[in-house]
Design brief:
single chain; alpha+beta; Ribosomal Protein S5, domain 2; 2 domains; 5-stranded antiparallel β-sheet; 4-stranded antiparallel β-sheet; 5 helices
């Protein structure tokens, strides 16, 4: 099972000038279309005097992520699609790129616009860096205190993304595990505890 995907690592921006026009690219990791739209609207308010605010975003994991792009008044296919092609080419999702242009008085032509928007989108992603993410499951485990240390030793071989424990007469352990490792982890806990551990698989969620 492929449970790994990539997104921009952080907020970032880059800028370039082409024949007097200033292009500013902004990248932000986002987790929903709503967050992408909020990011876009905030940039539009900040750059309300700009000639164009072109963008592309890609949201979600799997063979058919949700996406949208816009030329925002530039000739069709010269801005939004080139920006999106950068996202798709780097296999990124949960990311938005907005490129703001202030017109400098010289027309760049179709090819020039494609190159300019592609370049600043790529530069801004270079600044943001790439983050590796994993689809995950949350597993709640209740065990006898004597099994806590063996459990901690055993789970080192799994893709554990987070772990927390609460101690009383029994130990309650919350494990966040890569989805591709979940079933094998549960089977190993059952074997370790001779079937006495209480195991609850909770709703899927993003890594903490």
């Amino acid at each position: 099972m492929d449970d790994r995907y990539f997104s921009a690592a952080k907020l970032a921006r880059a800028e370039t000038k082409v024949k007097g026009s200033r292009f500013t690219g902004r990248v932000r990791p986002v987790v929903s279309i709503e967050e992408a739209v909020e990011t876009l609207e905030a940039i539009k308010r900040e750059e309300h005097a700009a000639t164009h605010n072109c963008y592309a975003y890609r949201i979600g994991f799997g063979p058919q992520p949700q996406f949208k792009y816009s030329d925002d008044g530039e000739p069709s296919g010269t801005a939004g699609k080139p920006i999106y092609d950068i996202l798709e080419g780097r296999e990124l999702t949960d990311t938005i790129i907005v490129v703001t242009r202030y017109y400098g008085g010289t027309k760049l032509g179709t090819g020039g616009l494609v190159r300019a928007y592609s370049e600043v989108a790529s530069l801004s992603l270079d600044e943001a860096g790439i983050r590796e993410n994993f689809l995950s499951d949350r597993i709640m485990v209740e065990i006898q205190p004597g099994l806590y240390n063996p459990l901690m030793k055993m789970i080192r071989t799994f893709g554990i993304l987070d772990q927390r424990a609460e101690f009383s007469d029994k130990v309650s352990v919350r494990l966040v595990v890569r989805k591709s490792h979940t079933e094998r982890l549960i089977a190993s806990i059952i074997e370790l505890s001779n079937g006495k551990a209480m195991i609850e698989k909770q709703d899927d969620h993003e890594p903490d």
